[in-house]
UniProtKB/TrEMBL annotation:
Keywords: Membrane, Transmembrane, Transmembrane helix
Residue intervals passing through the bilayer: 136-156, 168-184, 190-223, 235-254, 260-281, 293-313, 319-347, 359-380, 392-410
Protein's recorded name: PDZ domain-containing protein
Amino acid sequence: MSAEPERERLNRSGWAVLAAAAVLLLLSAANLVYRATLPTDGWAVDTSGGPIGNWVYAINLVGAESGLLVGDELASVDGRSVRDTATTAHVEPPPGWLAGNQVTMTVVRAGQTLDVRVPVVHWTPTALWRYNTRPLARVFDLLSNLLFLALAWFTFWRRPATPSAQALLFLGTAIGASAISGLLPDGLSVQFSAIAFALTYFFSYAIWGIVLGPSLLAFSLLFPRPKRAIQRRPLLGLTPALLSVLVFVAVVLLRQAIWGWFATLSMVLATIISFVHSGFTQRDAVSRAQLRWAIGGFVLGLALFLLVFPLAFRLITEPILVALLSGLSSLGFGVIGVGFAVAILRYRLYDIDIIIRKTLQYTVVTGLLALVYFGSVVLLQAIFGSLTGEQSPVVIVISTLLIAALFTPLRRRVQDGIDRRFFRQKYDAQQVLAAFAERLKNAPARDETDLDALLAELERVVGETLQPEGVGVWLKRP
């Protein structure tokens, strides 16, 4: 008897999800290749006033001689207005928008309206390298997204018939497709091409509400196993797909982008509620360990994303802290992907308990030791100051020795307290095993013993106390 699940085979739903995910990735890659051939001004751009604003020039990636300066806000190109349309509307290009030509751009610079001459060029490999490696947070963001994509496909390869693995594949593919689309800057090269604009609008913006949000919600409804309502009425499992269609109509056909962001936020909140519900309804040890990995990764990933808010509101402006928080916030998707993948594959599933225990243990110990250290420094300095009238370095030495002496006994006491409070089954493992041995001793005669029930009970006790990756029982023939 083994707890390791057998290798699964693709079913119909698995083939459908695989085909849709492959099409999504291929379309994103094709869009990237097509955009690389389009004429461009060679600059990376931001937007002013949100997506319904104007292009603001940030970095000259190609390096061609240009009348543009960093911070210029674009108004028109050869008399063709592009005001208040950034990322929201396709604009027909002026006749001179061809590589090798020059165009006249009207820009707003320091409150003044100016006309500048700008060459039209093609993207170069050097420009793309500069765009994707500066700042360093962009590298972390790209690697984190591609890690999620790789984990989603690997998990699906190992569990192709598992509904939650199918949802994870679509979720990871949506994140990966958006990352691929973002390898090239947005801007006039996209806005002046109807095909590039439509595909980039979908992969860089609309995909969040149309694919990513519904896939995340579907994962929470199907993990670690489909909810009872879906098991009784399988058609309820199509609810995320229906939401995807509604968001597509609102965002793509009706051009109501605000509804896309509202729908995405609503589905994230629904995902949190679904995870909480699963935490209360899933009772077996394996499912609860899976949920700890999935919920832990999801919560930690969201916490990393939230680090960007102090930067967005300019609450933190120190360059080192800005770079650090930007890098950490870009790791959110990678952390979520690791948590989801481990939960589905059940790889070292019960290690999450060790991680949680050690994190709690050393966090509490560090906090207590810090309080003791600073408290002893303040107290001893006050005593030495009253006796000698000056500060003494001996106080630092005494406080350090005190911390060294307290570390081991304090760590043991904290660990015992955490185990008693949060990991009671592990703390009482010896009592559980002793009770099982007593049960065997008082069992009926061998010919009256229910062997299947005995093996099931043995597997349960060993799983709860030792929490191994697998449980096997070998019976010797008499």
